[in-house]
Amino acid sequence: MPSLTYVVRRLALAAPLLLGMSVLVFGLMRVIPGDPAVVVLGYKATPESIRAMRETFHLDEPLLTQYARWCGGILRGDFGIDFRQNEPIGRMLVERLPVTIELTALASLAAALVGVPLGLLAGARRGGAADRASLALGLLGISLPDFWLGIMLILVLSLAAGVLPSSGFVPFAEAPLENLWYLALPTLTLASSRAAALGRLTRAAVLDVVHRPFVQFARAKGLAEGAILVRHVLPNAAIPIVTVIGLQVGYMLGGAIVVETIFALPGLGRMTLDAVLERNYPVVQSGLLVVGAMFMAVNLVTDVLYGLIDPRLRRR
Amino acid sequence: MTRGTSAVAVTGLAIVVLLALLAFAAPLVLPGSPTAIASAAALQAPTVVEPFGMDDLGRSVLSRVIHGYRVSLGVALASVVMAVLIGLPLGLLAGYAEGVLDQLIMRPLDILMAFPAILLAIALTSVFGTGVLLVSLALAIVYVPIVARVVRAAVLATKAEVYVEGARAVGATARRLVLRHIVPNCVTPLLVQASVLMAIAILVEAALSFLGVGVRPPTPSLGLMLSDGRGFMLQAPWVVVFPGLAILLAVLGFNMLADGLRDWLDPQQGTGR
Q1: Is A85 at the interface with chain B, CB within 8 A?
Q2: Which of A175, A207, A252, B186 keeps 20 to 30 A from A261, CA to CA?
Q3: Contact B115/A17, CB-based, under 8 Å?
């Protein structure tokens, strides 16, 4: 296991980043031109309703006080209420978060299960037919707009063939199989381009390792190619692969916005986008912060995994 | 550089140049206007004259795709150029100065990088508003940290080279060191990165427009065409098939160019990293 001090040091580095993120998100929502009360109330705005709204959301307070109030609330688990329905944002987050996390986890898993083996095979037989095919497929895959892929999957598999649903959602806890049924196309949409990217990177990482002396030694002592790949090449190519899987998860947290919109999934990404479209700033603010924090947490886990994979890094 | 990689680079370059020519010479080659509405031709299937068919308002899909390229490539180019104009000096300064200045420049940029690109772009367009220029600006801000990091890394690597030390030893000024010896070594990684960023910018602009936070109608945008076309894609698949293929082709072109450039500049890495 990585030492405790290693983990603590990583956590200490994360704190100022999180603080900076909260300042950025808060600041962004405050530089939007126009009085939010006027914008949100629209044609219903009367001097009284504007005053009432300013009071409810403390919009007249100095910025620093507002920021402190927001941060203080979050530390107590209170994200405030939203501009439109006056619903607690914390509850919205709790409802939406599991959908996005499940989608991202499923897509990451799918991308890793497809991308890593393909990259391994391609790298092991460099220049062969499989390698060239995977190169072409990889290039095509990373160039594929995921929202277009989603639309095409809906067109062919849902509308034309009627095999898989194009929208709808059931929580996993209620009906696990049905839940996976609904998430099949969204997962495929989100995972495809990432599987391609991961395959490309795995191949490059493998190529970096296959000509090292210890691989040649393993081959010289008569080890089977498969065993060499799994036991000697993969562990040594693991650091860049794990790094990229970590980055991919972050990318997918962003991509989830698009996929949740296409497939009408009640996730965090769609909540944030809807909030942007209806200028529900408190929701945008908290949604952004939570996604950013998750992205950061993934990077943190990746860092700790480095320590597991390569003991030399623990001492750094 | 093997023959295979040069073929990739040349093909990528050819696609990019061709699409750029098409986009910027659009009015000369257009079969019809991208905004002219002809309800009689609504959802007409592809024909010889209109190989991409017509959309729900009877507008030529081909003509809209070509005009959409203008927006796609224009936004991508503008955002990458702006990002380089801001990110290059920042990266040079951070890498050359190191220490406190480096921290002062790079730490705030880390915060920008802590958000998924598309999310940050959406947040920025919610501040700036939508439209071609504002979307370019939002993307540029998303890219500045990436450019600065690439440049900074190149500067740090170059600074350790013997010839830079030599130039310093014979009394070259800091200005001369940076401009004559360090900047030329940043150009190549920056070119690769710029090509990758062009590819991503085309994807992100299309995604933003698709989501309704990018380019505004009636400007023809590939992403907007996809969101408009979703409602009747079963009757008229061409309204979503061709704009999507168009995005794919442009992104593929820039990715191939980036791959080819990378191999050419760094032959040891092997093909297709």
Answers
A1: no
A2: A175
A3: no
